[in-house]
Write a structure and sequence with these properties.
The chain has 157 residues and is mainly beta. Helices cover 0% and strands 50% of the residues. It starts with 7 loop residues before the first strand and ends in an 8-residue tail after the last strand.
Length: 157
C-alpha cells in the first residue's frame, strides 16, 4: 500500500489544515503557501480534485534555491606587452544554487570587450584606455548580484 502525507483537505466549504504552523491554505483561490521554506520542502507534491466518482491527480515539483551571495572578482593572470594589458578574471559567488554568470560593459564603446557568459573573462585592452568598466552578474532563479571591475592601467588591483 502507498502512503501519502496529507497537508490540507478541502471539502465543500470546509477545510482542514494538518500543518497549521507550516502551511497557509487560501480558500479564495486554493493557493497553498509553505511558510519558512527550507531545502527539505523541495520535493514532488500531489493534489487531487474529486468530482463525484472521478478523481484527477496532478503533480507539482517544488524546487527550493539558496539565493546568490555577492560575487567576488579574482585576477587569475595579468600580462603587459606591446602597449596592451591582458587580464584573466574569475567571478564567483560563494553561495547559491544553479548560479550562472555573465559579463557586460558599463562604459560606452567597450560593449564587446567585456562580454561573456561564464565566470571567466579574458580581457585585453590598450594601456592608455582608462574608461573600461566590466560588470559581472551572478544570477539564479531567485536572486541576482552584480559587481564591477575597473582595471587601472594593469595595476595590482
Amino acid at each position: 500500500p502507498q502512503k501519502k502525507q496529507v497537508l490540507v483537505k478541502y471539502s465543500g466549504v470546509n477545510s482542514t489544515n494538518y500543518y497549521l504552523r507550516q502551511m497557509s491554505f487560501q480558500r479564495s483561490d486554493f493557493s497553498l503557501e509553505i511558510l519558512n521554506t527550507s531545502r527539505q520542502d523541495g520535493q514532488l507534491y500531489e493534489y487531487s480534485v474529486s468530482t463525484g466518482p472521478v478523481e484527477e491527480v496532478h503533480q507539482i515539483q517544488l524546487k527550493v534555491y539558496e539565493p546568490v551571495s555577492h560575487p567576488n572578482i579574482q585576477i587569475l593572470s595579468k600580462e603587459v606587452a606591446n602597449g596592451s594589458c591582458t587580464i584573466t578574471l574569475n567571478c564567483t559567488a560563494e553561495q547559491g544554487d544553479d548560479v550562472s554568470y555573465s559579463w557586460d560593459s558599463q562604459a560606452n564603446g567597450t560593449s564587446g570587450l567585456c562580454s561573456g557568459n561564464s565566470s571567466f573573462l579574458h580581457l585585453s585592452y590598450p594601456l592608455r584606455s582608462t574608461s573600461i568598466s566590466c560588470v559581472c552578474t551572478a544570477t539564479n532563479p531567485v536572486s541576482s548580484w552584480a559587481v564591477t571591475f575597473n582595471p587601472s592601467e594593469c595595476s595590482s588591483e
